[in-house]
Amino acid sequence: MLENIDLTMIILLGLAAFRLTRLIVYDRITEFIRRPFFKEIEETVEDGTVEIYFTPKEEGVRGWIGELLSCHWCTGIWVSMLLGGLYLYQLPFSDYVIIVLAIAAIGSIIETIISGLIGS
């Protein structure tokens, strides 16, 4: 199976891994997944506003998962293994998941570029 992988699939898998990693580590929509593994710390800034920080819990498995979810490099490795496995095992939905995530990654990259150009 690995002998059949080409540059196009490597790029698609890379884009899919990028998007899924950002979804898990940063996006608000998946905050409910991260919440059990983090403790919330509130700090009042000099101007009176309150900033909220999340730090991984310190104990056991929850702490370990919290550390994993707070590191996009670490999460990216696990996501890459998952997507690579989906590709290698050719499950019925594998190609669809990889392509959708790759398309979403391209869209997010374009949005970031456009937002940077127009300054919003």
Describe the structure.
The chain has 120 residues and is mainly α. The protein has one domain. The protein has five helices and two strands, in the order ααββααα.
The total tally of domains equals 1
Ends apart, CA distance between termini = 45 Å
Report the biggest beta sheet as strand number plus sense, adding barrel if it closes.
2 strands, antiparallel
The unreliable regions are none
Shape: flat
| Percentage of residues assigned to helices | 55-70%
Which quaternary structure do these chains form? single chain
Layout of secondary structure:
Blueprint: H1 7-25, H2 31-34, E1 38-44, E2 50-56, H3 60-69, H4 72-89, H5 94-118
Antiparallel strand pairs: 1-2
Helix pairs in contact: 1-4, 1-5
Provide a brief overview of the structure.
The chain is mostly helical.
